[in-house]
């Protein structure tokens, strides 16, 4: 590891996350040089390269995999959150699931007024609360694990409300247009969310497309809108059009 790479690592330890383009400006080197330096640091298991930049692998990230997940595909999640925000009007009631994509959307809600917000993600609730001016915020109860809540108490809470819009993500969207999850509890909960939301918007980046997992939650035909970051395969586009599902990227 050379002197420049050492300096980059020191800087990253302070910032936790930084974009490749910003590192290039900071150290006055080309982005290609910085990318090579980041590759060296990643091979030494000191950082992890993510979309557009890098994060430091320290004890905090190792102990909190949810925090690491937040930075993966960050550019794509920001783009999706920006598009999703346009669906929210002042005084809306909304649900944000436990996904990192919905956490990015949570950052933007201070641009709206008098929302009623429900979430199952502790970090999302915390960041909304810190920037809250006029919103009513509800942290849905349940068993806490990895920064999110789930279980029978969570399900009962969701059955007792009806929101204007529910924003959900997923583990995968398969080639047969099925939305799926790794955990049975996640799949079941999203079925309940569908029943208690006037509109359901799926927010999922391109890495989720053509992926299938054990537990089916919904079909794409069950949602009202699909927001992603890249053009979907044509068969997906045709399916969405035939089922009158909004589609943005």
From TrEMBL:
Record flagged with keyword Transmembrane: no
GO molecular function: DNA binding; DNA-binding transcription factor activity
InterPro entries membership: Carb_Metab_HTH_regulators, DeoR-like_C, DeoR_HTH, NagB/RpiA_transferase-like, Tscrpt_reg_HTH_DeoR_CS, WH-like_DNA-bd_sf, WH_DNA-bd_sf
Residue ranges annotated for the HTH deoR-type domain, each copy included: 1-56
Entry keyword set: DNA-binding, Transcription, Transcription regulation
PROSITE patterns registered for this protein in UniProt: HTH_DEOR_1, HTH_DEOR_2
Pfam families on file: DeoRC, HTH_DeoR
Protein name as catalogued: Transcriptional regulator
Organism field: Streptococcus massiliensis
Gene coding for it: glpR
